[in-house]
Amino acid sequence: MRILLFHILLFFSVSLLAQNDSLPEKDTTDTGIYAWQYNDFYQKDTVVIDTAVNDFQVFNPVYRKNFLMTGSTGNLSSPVYDLFLSCPQHSNFLNAAFNDYLTDDNAVRFYNTKNFYTNVFYFTNGSKDNNLQSVSVLHTQNIKPFWNFAIDYHLYASDGIYANQKSKFSSFVFSSVFEKPKYVAHLIVKNQQFKTGENGGIISKDDIGPSLAPVNVPVNLTVAANKLRNLNVNLTQDIPLLIKGDSLSETKLSVSHTFVYYSQKHFYTDVPNGFYSTINFDSTQTNDSSRVHHLKNLVRLNLSGKRTNWFIGYENNLSAYFSNIDSIDFSENTVVAGGNYHTLRLMANLRLRQSFTGYYQGNYSVSGKFQYVLSPVNKNRVVVAVDFFNRRPDYFYAHYTTNNFVLDTTLQTEQILSLAPSLLLWNNHLELNAVYRQWQQYGYFDSLLVFNQLTQGMTYYSASAQLRIPLKHFYFHTHLLYQGNTQSDIIDFPDIVAMQSVNVQSWFFKKALFAQFGVEVNYFTAFYGRGYIPALSHFYVQQTEKIGDYPFVDFYFNFKVKRARIFFKIQHLNAGMNGVNYFTAINYPMQQRVFRFGISWGFYD
């Protein structure tokens, strides 16, 4: 029945698309700003400054990455996990529950603009008892025609509705680019911090109801808290050694140097009350502290031509890990290489990494991507991504000591093969994706809160469709994911994850006001959801309690007046109408019905 529903919704959406021969572009305003991101070949991937109202009501930064719901501990900027099998490029212990909020270096934007550009975004809710505030500011301007800087700041702060649920996430990203024919440099400075109250979840879902205010619902922990800080500095410089030919068929040989300093600090505080079965050091106070420092230097030789790009390089990484009683430092030496071939319709690249020394000796990865443009007019194209990782799990998974946990074991090397074909049609209005993944030695925390690895390989597969249909007076956004895996008796995922947004839209007052009002529904089928370990900031698997099979319904208004975008949103409109099974993690209910308001204003004159 669920698979039939999936196909019916997909057929209905595609039928609507077929009836609209000429898809209008989304409502955007030309800001006159050139923005881009650097890929692994130091090429510029152009980024569009989005000024549309479509999906503007999706304010959660995690949901905006793929518009599918995630599992969480129930509050904005709180720990999250994906409802599908994701495969991060690196195994990272301290950021495992917060990685979806963080900005990767490859996702940092650089700009070039004749005039300054500033965008301010603010949203809040209408309840003093559930205070939520968010401010985002983006500002960029040129210092010289060849030199630009940008500041991208985000702050999310929420008290939550249950006891000891307050959370705060702040992100400061500074980027600067300097471009001249004989010297190019770009700088990234990131400071991203989390502060979360950890209540360990509610004690019983029977306490949820009109007779007891959420703040009075008993929870497991009342004073526990986590703090996590990520500090990153990345400076890349490129100096040409040889430039030959004209601008249309230029051959360039250059040497580049990248310096990276990366620091992570994690603190967990608590007063033991029997929630954890083990006390290792102090039965009166928990003060866990852990740190990771990386100092990287990468030297590359780059060769680019009319249709090809090549690089080969050497990277040295000095790493140091510290927990309560454990520490280690080592030097990791890595060789990197890559090649890229591109024409007007065809693009293919290959990237290699091999580590020779240090704790991660023997790690290697092979990543490739193929893209062929079927129709340049509509940007129809097929994309196939292939990745293979042979890697040891992060050091802390094998050696980590806290007041409540001791991880001390020998872990096997993970091997991950991932194949992801995609078909993108009609100017990206329709995306069809599939994922096939083989994962050997998959690591996870079990229901006893012990870190294990699967003794047998896990095969994971998924098929998804994302459809955006902007009609004259309607806008449809559908995202459907169907998935399965061969180890579902241990690692379970919902069979279907879906999001459907439908709104009516029109211009008013002689096209001075553009307005949308609509409904958004998020849904996933029942599955054995994850529990959460506050002291480790990790989720664990379990096979005793199911969550899901519950629709989260939101109602919203989106407006655009000149350069201002505004949304009004009633989130979780159906709270209390069909039970209290609104959990996305075990013992952590999602927030109840709440009103949200947000406004974004751009300045670029």
Can you offer a commentary on this structure?
The chain is mainly beta. It has one domain: Beta Barrel (Maltoporin, Chain A). The chain is built from three helices and 37 strands. The chain has helices at residues 2-19, 63-66, 395-398; strands at residues 34-38, 44-47, 71-72, 80-81, 110-112, 117-125, 132-144, 147-158, 167-180, 183-198, 224-244, 251-270, 286-304, 308-322, 327-342, 346-355, 364-375, 380-391, 399-401, 406-408, 414-425, 430-440, 443-445, 451-453, 458-470, 474-485, 496-508, 513-524, 527-528, 531-533, 538-540, 546-547, 552-561, 564-571, 583-585, 588-589, 594-603. The strands form eight sheets. The chain has a 22-stranded antiparallel barrel. Strands 2-1-5 form a three-stranded antiparallel β-sheet, with no helix packed on it. A hairpin with a 6-residue loop joins strand 6 and strand 7 (132-144). The longest helix is centred in the first third of the chain and has 18 residues, at 2-19. The chain is globular, with a radius of gyration of 25 Å. Mean pLDDT is 91; it is low at 1-29.
